[in-house]
Design brief:
By secondary structure, the protein is of the alpha+beta class. It is 18% helix and 34% strand. It has helices spanning 2-21, 27-35, 233-236, 239-250, 260-264, and strands at 52-62, 67-77, 84-90, 116-122, 125-126, 130-133, 136-144, 149-159, 169-172, 175-177, 184-185, 188-189, 193-194, 210-219, 229-230, 274-284. Strand 1 (52-62) and strand 2 (67-77) form a beta hairpin.
Length: 285
């Protein structure tokens, strides 16, 4: 009789533990299971999808004034089953715009006017029906059907912050960390639809996996390092530097590409008034 009680107790305990680990699931995630885009084991469902973009970026950066002027050409593919009638963009530099909510205290001198959108076209047609609210920009567009694409061309500018660093800003008089520097299309996913959450400085970034071609023009004497592969090293660096870059790409050992003596002798970049560095990055977020 005693052994029967022990077995019953063990069975009850196992049932109790199983019940304990079945935590509540948010309705939005339950819906993804029903739609087949996600599964309870964490793997993508049979109907899972992600939207994506191809970007061509061209920017001119003035290290003295910290003014960045740029153009964005982006082709966005709607892989979702939904028809999109508006497109949301992220303007991350607007974290430093006056009056924008943020989870950090910035010096008044580092706050400015944020991103100025000078021109915006969609599929070649000028668009004036857009709204900027903090770090979000919404653009009304003709319906983008499932499987279709839409192309945007944007001309914009903003001034990089000098201090109050939050993942971007001037490092010292000769170097700058210019991050998240272009209008980027927000994520549209199977859970929330558009990612409408504002960027307040504390959040991790949530972006699609996209393809990029970027051209960054800076005054002579400045070097640029960026995500992706440098495609025109011989156009912007002197021969000795190009040789060391090539060696570093093929060698597991540490290679000092630019040394203090290189800088002193001014034997780093090509002796031009301006140099344009061209980068390519595929399937990065």
């Amino acid at each position: 009789m005693r052994s029967i009680k022990i077995i019953a107790l063990l069975l009850f305990s196992a049932f109790y533990l199983k019940a304990q680990i079945q935590l509540p699931v948010e309705p939005v995630f339950q819906n993804t299971y029903l739609k087949g885009t996600r599964s309870t084991d964490g793997k993508p469902g049979k109907k899972y999808w992600q939207n994506s973009s191809n970007y061509n970026l061209k920017v001119d950066f003035n290290p003295v004034s910290r003014l960045l002027k740029g153009t964005v050409e982006v082709v966005y593919t709607n892989n979702s089953p939904d028809t999109l009638k508006e497109i949301w963009f992220k303007l991350y530099p607007n974290l430093y715009k006056k009056g924008v909510p943020r989870k950090a205290r910035f010096a008044e001198a580092d706050l400015g006017e944020g991103v100025t959108v000078e021109k915006l076209t969609s599929n070649g047609k000028s668009i004036t029906d857009f709204n900027i609210d903090g770090t979000n920009m919404t653009v009304k567009v003709p319906a983008v059907l499932p499987g279709k694409t839409i192309k945007f061309d944007i001309t914009y500018n903003y001034t990089l912050n000098k201090g109050s660093h939050m993942r971007t800003g001037q490092v010292d008089e000769g170097s700058h960390f210019v991050a998240y520097f272009f209008p980027r299309i927000a994520v549209y996913d199977d859970v929330d639809g558009w990612n409408k959450y504002p960027y307040t400085g504390a959040e991790e970034f949530y972006n699609d996996f996209d393809n990029f071609n970027a051209e960054v023009t800076v005054p002579g004497g400045y070097s640029v390092w960026a995500t992706g592969d440098l495609k025109n090293a011989s156009d912007v660096f002197q021969k000795e530097i190009v040789s060391k870059i090539t060696s570093a790409e093929k060698n597991d050992a540490v290679v000092d590409v630019i040394t203090e003596s290189d800088l002193t002798a001014k034997k780093v970049t090509q002796p031009k008034a301006f140099n344009t560095f061209k980068f390519e990055a595929k399937n990065v977020t």
